[in-house]
Amino acid sequence: MPTREHPISRRRILTHGGAALVGMLCPLGTMRGAFAAEPIPVAIANASGNLNLTMQELMKQQGYLQEMGLAGTITNVADGSKITGGLIGGDVDVSTMAGFGQVFPAIERGAKLKIIAGACLLPLLALYSSKPGIKTLKDLEGRTVGTGALGALLHQLVVALLQKNGVDIAKVSFVNVGASGDVFRAASMGTVDAGTGEAAIADQLGRYNVHMIEGGDMATGLPEYTYQGAYTTDKAIATKRDVIVRTLAAYAKLYRLMAKPEGKEAFLKARAEVLKSSPSQEGESQWSYLQQHKPFTTDLLLSEERLAYMQRLNVQLGTSRALADVQALRGILNSRDGLSLIGAQLPGHITSLTGPVLESVKAHLDSPMAVKSDLFLYSLVLVMSKLAAPWQLLRLATRAANTSIFILAISTPVGHSWRQALQDTQSFRVSAISSDASASGPNWPEIASRKVLARPRVTSFSLRVAR
Questions:
Q1: Considering its fold, how many domains does the chain have in total?
Q2: Which run of H or E residues covers position 42?
Q3: Residue 415, domain extent
Q4: Which pTM does this prediction carry?
Q5: Residues 265 and 409 in one domain
């Protein structure tokens, strides 16, 4: 069915709520008859875990995707970054039940992703330990905690909970164990000191040799954290809008079923199908827990407050780029007085970086204040900003060979250009005047490069801010 036959926007979905989805898609209300005989394929990637597997089976048994004229292929993935990778690569159309903490840094890096709906709003996990000495969250300082990949859902959840309860996370060692089931097994076996597991099994812990850590129930201890949502790409929204809308409509029906007491039998049947070795009592406990907390959003809405919290949390926890940017900004702010002093000693505008001007710039950059502090990179950028032609900075490179300026500069974002320029110059010297060994000089670019290989690279944010 051509997607243009049902021009329905996400704004209308979220404005009218899940109850209106069926009517919006099919004004006559006859769902099966409203769609073409040939179902439209949709590729869905969701998080793994026992509850998600159960929900997937429940979706299959209830036939909600088929009702919406879709042939769904659902893949469960333990690593959320693989979901975003599949979406960006075009192998996946939409994710409907997955944590989306990794979406923010992906967007920061340029990924065209959109969070389009809520799913399971409350985190349904708790922190467990098999170690008798670990009773409270504060006891986790100096211990190892099993999570998923650093920055992914499980890790982010645990860090947020610990920070909220005043735990110094710098004193906690986080270990990437894998999916939620793997983390719980590691905690029960004592491989790690603590780990996450389903909060619903709190009354069945005798079977697993673990206890829930005080304050570790995340549904009550961290209700502001949005556990799962739905997200997709700008391209999918533009080219497969109706498919996305129908998919969301199917999941709205699924979440409504989970909110009703009459959904219990279907839920337990689906759970028994995917978790054959799990005792029936655990299924009963999970259903009771879900009915008590009502975590699923039946109208698909995801409030601005929840999104704002998740964004703030990502900033607080910090992507690697965000942390580098903050550190660079702090370095600049701490160096303001020194930069002002150096800037006042440099010419206001440098038309040609040669002769006495070049010697003056070199002398200022080679001063103890610039060389022996964090000022160097920012001083270098300050010089660049004053040049009529920024490429003239390479003249400083050739003049500064065998000095501390070169050693420092080669580890900055301009270092590669300096090395290349000097290596080209050296090659030219050797080929042009090979009979004069003293003219070619020692291979100082390579020597300098080796000296600074171990120095950390400076983020390009330093260049942007310093300018």
A1: 3
A2: strand 40-47
A3: 321-466
A4: 0.63
A5: no
